[in-house]
Amino acid sequence: MTQIASYASDPRKSRGRRFDEGRAENGGSVRGPRDDFQRDRDRIIHSISFRRLRHKTQVFVAPDGDHFRVRLTHSLEVAQIGRTIARSLGLNEDLTEALCLAHDIGHPPFGHAGEDALEEALADHGGFDHNAHTIRTLTKLERPYPRWDGLNLTWEMLEGLAKHNGPVSEPTWAMAEANAAMDLDLGSWPSLEAQIAAVADDIAYDNHDIDDGIRAGLLSIDQLLALPFIAERWSDICTRFPDIERDRLVPELIRDQIGLMVNDVIETTVQRIKETGVETADDVRKAGRMIGGFSDDMAVKERTLKTFMYANLYNHPEQMAAADKARVVVADLVTAYRDKPDLMAEGWAATLPSAEPDRIRHIADFMAGMTDRYASNSHAQIFGVNND
Prior knowledge:
This protein is an all-alpha fold. It has 18 helices and no strands. Helices cover 60% and strands 0% of the residues. This is Deoxyguanosinetriphosphate triphosphohydrolase-like protein. Residues 71-206 form the HD domain.
C-alpha cells in the first residue's frame, strides 16, 4: 500500500462492512491482493447503476452529440481530479476515487429536472434526494451477491457518500434508513477523502460545463470575459498563443482554470491541516469545520462562476424548455405506474408493495434507475408521444 498521511483513511483500520463476508470456502469473497477501499472502488465500477450513468443527463438532456458529457464521463473526470489532489495530500487515493465515481449514482433520468419531479411525487412520503438515493441504490437496490442486498461497502465509503458536503442534521427518510442499518455518524464531519471528492466535483462541473456550453453554442467566450478572473486567464492565454484562433484556445482556458483550482485546494488544505492540528482521520471528523476545499478568495470566485453559469447556461431558455419537457415525462410515468403497475418492468411490477409509502417509493426506485433514453421511450410507448 502506498504510504499515506496519518490523517488519511486507512483500510486496515476500517470500521468494516455491514455483512461479514467471511472466508471464500464458506461463501465469502476471494480476497486476493486488494484492500477494502480498492474493493469498494471496483464494486462501484462493476455495478449496473454505474454503467447506467452513460445515458444520464449531465447538462444537456439526452444529448445527441458524442462530444457532450454525461454523468458517466463527468464522474470519471471528477475521479481524475480527486486522485490528483488526494495523492498530493497523502490521502487514500482508492477511497477518494471510489467516492468520486459513485457520487452521482442516485441521480434519476434528466438530471435535476427528473429529481424535481420525483421530489414532488414523494412530497407527502419523505421526498426524494439524489444523494440519499445513491446510498439507497448501493445498499439495497444493487443485488449482485447471493446472501445480502447491496454492494456491502465499507463504513468509510458510505459515510463519505452520506456527508461529503458536511454533517447531515436533517436526514431524508432514505438517509435515515441507511443510517439505521449502519450508523454513519451523520452529525460529524466527513473524512478528508470525502471532502476532496466534493470539491473535485465542483472543479469538474464548473469548468467542463463551460466547455460543453461553448460547444453547444449556448455560451461564448465574450460572455465569460465579464468575469474578471476568467478574463485574466484568457488574456494570459492569448499572450502565450498570439497566432492561434480563439476556438483552439478554449481547452487551454479549461485546463488553466482546473489547474488553478486544484493548486488552490492543495495549498489551502495543507494550511488548514496545520491550523487545526489534525493527526488522525477521527481528528478530521471532530475538527468542527471543513478542512479540504478552496481558499476564501477562490471560494468567492467559484460562487461567482456558478452564479454566471446558472444565469447563462443552466437557466438558458433552451435548457429550461428541455427541463420542462423532462419533468412532464417523469411526472407522467409516475402517474401511469401508480394507476397501472403492470406497465412497469416485470420484476418491478411483481414486487410492488400494496400500501403507501412503500408503494410510491418502489415506483421512485424504478424511475430513478432509468436512463434518459429508457424514460423517453417508455413515455412514448405509454402515451404515444415522442419526446426527443
